[in-house]
Each structure stands twice: as structure tokens, then as C-alpha cells.
């Protein structure tokens, strides 16, 4: 994972400390596997790094784990009102909710969301500190900044909680900001795009040429330059839990395909942004159109896999103890 980076640090979560993955990483990267960093510690780490490299050409990638369960905002960021009966200033009930052993009554659910939003404000202020440091160092204007999230969060919009279990909008529609070097123009684009475009967009903005025929998504630079962008499907796939699904959006229409039961859901995101009305039963032509599109997308995906040689199995020597652990975790069958 660290290939090509001048410095690379792995900071696992506390609860992952005894997992097979953490033990493996500790064995592979003993000098780089550091104790869990809190949000302020990541900010301080970034500030120190920026001060050290302010006069260099640099690439810096930061991953804030928060906002994430368990929700536990610092005292200064807690909601102003008192928690409802049976609730506190920390909530970590996702595993129980997922298993069905914990049911949060509707009157308590808004409080859970407020704790999450408090963590959002906390992280936002920390990102603001890094922005302020870039300005203090005199390099903000010349720096390209990309901000994105890997997923959203559900608060019972579709009857469940947290993330990793569906492909509805509350989980896959995320913030995505790009600050261009020396650019004072501020635009809020309505086009639906994918965070998969980050790679191509950064390469294009940095003047690095790549074969556009072998990229999953085109760069977003035409949007910045002339406001023109060809609509292309936005794909999401592989939730962590329950049935495997894939979703794709073309224009205002969204399809969700459940890969085991072969169920297809279709939503008009303009008329129904909350995805409450599945129109698959009343629009069979839409289902047929969507499945044809999906077949083309799968074909393009197969071509990319072949091109980048990521198909098939790679031989690897694994000792019996590791094999047993992989089997116990469900990675091997």
C-alpha cells in the first residue's frame, strides 16, 4: 500500500487492534502501524507535515475516520438540549440494530442524528484548521484540494440505520468539493457525477496524460472550463451487508439490482428524491432499458479488468495458520 509515497502511516481503529487484518498489517509494517489517531491528532499531524513540506511540490492524502459510529461528539460540540430518556451523549448501537436485537423507538431517533451532525461539525472545524494552515503558509491559492466522503448515513429513511446495507441515496450521495489552484470562481454543479472521477480529474488538472479509453470515469475538467459535461452512468455496488446489489443512475432515473433475488427497483429521482415509489411494476420498459444498460456496463467493466490484469487468481504462499484464520473469518470457503 505504501509504494510510491514518501511517507505512509497506518492508524487502525482501537477496536480493530486484535483483528487478523491488524495483526497482519503490524507484521508487514511494524514501523508504520501507529496507535489510533483522534480527529485533532490527525489535524496536528497534517499541520506539522505541511509546515515541513510547504516549499515542496507535494501530494497529501488524509483520512478522517469521523464522523462515524460510535457517535461521541466532544463536549463543546454536543447538542444543546438534554438527551431524551434512555439516551446519552454516546451512541454505538449499529451492530445491535443490524442484528435486530436493538430497536430504537421513533421519538429517540432524531437524537441519534443530532449526535452524528455534531460529529460532522467537529470534523468540519478540523478541516477548516488545515485550510487556515495552508493560508498561513501562503500556499492555499496554489493548492489543488479535493474533499470527498466514502459513504453517507441512513437514519431510518428506509427502515434501517447506519451504512453498508443499501444503495439508496442517503448512503451513496456524498459531498464532493474541488478547490482549483488560483481559482476564485465558486460553482455548485447540478450534474450528477461520481467520486470515481477523482483520479481522472486530478491527472487532467495536473497535466498528466493517461489513456482516457481505460478510465472508469472521465475527468470533470470540462465542467470547470466551459460548464459542459456529457452525462454518463453513475455506478455504485457491493454493500457490506445482506444481499449484494448494484445501482446505476442515468439522467434522473435510478435502478437498483439485487444480484441474488434478481429484483429490480426503479426510481425517478426528480419526482421522488427520497426513493419512496418504486416504478418498476408500472414501467416495464424502464426495467428492460436498465438491464440492457447494466449488461453494457458489465462488459465495459470486464474489459477494464482484462486491461489492468486484475482478473483471475494470483498465486500466493499462505501458511496453514493464516489459512485457518481466513476460513474462520469467511474470506475463504
Secondary-structure element order, N to C: HHHHEEEHEHHEEEEHH
- The CATH class of the largest domain is identified as Alpha Beta
**N- to C-terminal separation?**
26 Å
Give the overall average pLDDT.
88
Question: How many separate helices?
Answer: 9
Tell how many strands the DSSP assignment holds: 8
Q: What would you give as the CATH superfamily of the largest domain? A: Alkaline Phosphatase, subunit A
Q: How large is the share of residues in beta strands?
A: 5-15%
The shape, in one word, is globular
Tell me about the biggest sheet?
A: 4 strands, antiparallel
Stretches with pLDDT under 50, minimum 5 residues: none
Task: Kindly provide the radius of gyration, computed on alpha-carbon positions and rounded to a whole number of angstroms.
Answer: 22 Å
The overall number of domains is 2
CATH architecture of the largest domain: 3-Layer(aba) Sandwich
The strands making up the biggest β-sheet line up spatially as 5-6-7-8
Describe the structure.
With about 325 residues, the chain is an alpha+beta fold. It has two domains: about 40-180, Alkaline Phosphatase, subunit A (3-Layer(aba) Sandwich), CATH 3.40.720; about 235-330, Arylsulfatase, C-terminal domain (2-Layer Sandwich). Helix content is about 35%, strand content about 10%. The protein has nine helices and eight strands. It has a four-stranded antiparallel β-sheet, with helices on one face. A two-stranded antiparallel ribbon has the order 1-4. It has a two-stranded antiparallel sheet with strand order 2-3. β2 and β3 (about 160) form a beta hairpin. α2 (about 40-55) runs parallel beside α4. The longest helix is centred in the middle third of the chain and has 28 residues, at about 110-135. The model has no long low-confidence stretch (mean pLDDT about 90).
